[in-house]
Amino acid sequence: MEKREELYAGKAKSVFTTDDPDYLVLHFRDDTSAFDGKKKEQLARKGQVNNRFNAFIMEKLKAAGVPTHFERLLNDREALVKKLDMIPVECVVRNISAGSLCRRLGVEEGLTLTPSTFELFLKNDAQGDPMINESLAETFGWATPEQLAQMKTLTYQVNDVLKQLFLDGGMLLVDYKLEFGVFKGEIVLGDEFSPDGCRLWDSETREKMDKDRFRQGLGGVIEAYEEVGRRLGIEFD
């Protein structure tokens, strides 16, 4: 597979075309940002850690029957993925109250949410990724009712798999966001899964082991990511 020109550069990853129109190269950078890009930093090893972490999680989801865009690792920082027609709607599941949910509703952090909540957000940096609902997504053509239903089903399936996986490693999966796209008519998970895009707490101490360490200036960001990986059995070079 030949890597070609850069197609897109996001906040922490770059996407490159290949000689096969159905596949792309996903490059994980060391860039880290928060608060809509207002806080930025380079964290050594972050690209390698998230690339390896994501590959491990994608393989677990694939084994559980979740269709993903991930094909295989290419090197320390890159993975081969399917080229999807992305749906501009983020799916968020919350198992424990934290972050924007607490600010929005005035609830305390750390409440177990039963049942887990499911929310939709429009993928639009300029508008701050506003919260939306199924009706808005359908009216404005961002997603069809059938697509939304499948995205919700898959998001909860991911939750079932990963909540237990992290719990077995002594961690709580607090919340996370997922993006989906269409590949040859099928709804496919088209996102990475790493401590950048979810919240993870130690199940005993509730110490934060995710990107909140960067947001809140707690330090030890990559060390925490690596500890999460080690608890899951991931080997980092």
TrEMBL record:
Q: Which NCBIfam families match?
A: purC
Residues of the SAICAR synthetase/ADE2 N-terminal domain = 7-231
Q: Do the record's keywords include Nucleotide-binding?
A: yes
User: What is a single molecular function from GO for this protein?
Assistant: phosphoribosylaminoimidazolesuccinocarboxamide synthase activity
InterPro entries linked: SAICAR_synt/ADE2_N, SAICAR_synt_PurC, SAICAR_synth, SAICAR_synthetase, SAICAR_synthetase_CS
According to its UniProt record, the EC number is: 6.3.2.6
Name the SUPFAM superfamilies for this protein.
SAICAR synthase-like
Alphabetically sorted, this entry's keywords are: ATP-binding, Ligase, Nucleotide-binding, Purine biosynthesis
Origin species: Terasakiispira papahanaumokuakeensis
The family this protein is said to belong to: Belongs to the SAICAR synthetase family.
According to UniProt, the name of this protein is Phosphoribosylaminoimidazole-succinocarboxamide synthase
